[in-house]
Amino acid sequence: MLAGRTKADHNCEVYRNFHHTRTGMLRKFLIALSLLALSLPGLASQAEAADITGTAKVRAGDAVAIGNTRIRLGGIDAPAVDQLCLNNKGERWTCGIAARDELAKYVDGKNWVCHARSIDRRGRTVARCDVGGEDIQKWLVRAGWALAYTRMSHDYEADEKAAREAKAGMWQGAFIAPWDWRVRNKKTTILGATKPPDGAHAILLASASGPVAPSPDCTIKGNVNTAGECIYHRPTSRWYAQIKMKISKGTRWFCSVEEAEDAGCRETKR
């Protein structure tokens, strides 16, 4: 042992050398493993390639659940359940509920095969789904119950054009694109076949959160607390009656706990 060095110094140096060697070996192993994964595409994409099959419970026009798996239909965007549109007479109607119910009716009892693509920020599986051998996203867009979500995919642009020309579904009247409605974009263009009445922007952007629920089965209240969190309240919760459902960005109705949680809300602790 060198002069001036203690046994503890020697032991520390031995440990550092061992740790450095082990770390280097681990790094080389991980690099080799990564290269192996890249050389075997099937291994790298095994999780994505796994299909999800079964009958589905429809949550919204673009969201379903198969067993315990929550699925967001990729490449499209449908109105939220509490979004309202205008019909061809300029009257409000619950297009979000209609989109959900029309999808549920169309796929009733049929088997789904969903090809997983990714996981979104809410923990849902983004997938492309076939129902009875039919691309269900394509059907939704062509029937006018959803729009092609071109930020993610251009697969359904032709179907949206066909729906617009046929004045199908939402295209019969006037509406706000779902992605603009969610953020209450006041500068958005009103879509549809009907010339919107004066003040239509205010009507369409503010229609979701009025004092009356859009449907009798939509009784869950959602609001945003001072920390910016979305909180949902069931009718049995302590503060339910005190939450005023005003026309604002901060409050909205939900038709189920699953829908509230899919929107990123958590249940009140009281």
* Structural class category: alpha+beta
Radius of gyration over alpha carbons? 26 Å
The proportion of strand residues reads 15-25%
Relative helix content: 25-40%
CATH fold field value of the domain at 47-83 and 93-171: OB fold (Dihydrolipoamide Acetyltransferase, E2P)
Order of helices and strands: HHHEEEEEEEHEEEHEHEHEHEEEHE
What composes the largest sheet? Answer: 7 strands, mixed
The mean pLDDT is 81
- The CATH class of the domain at 47-83 and 93-171 is identified as Mainly Beta
Low-confidence stretches: 14-23, 30-47
Number of helices: 9
> Distance between termini?
67 Å
What is the tally of beta strands? 17
CATH-derived architecture of the domain at 47-83 and 93-171:
Beta Barrel
The rough form would be described as: globular
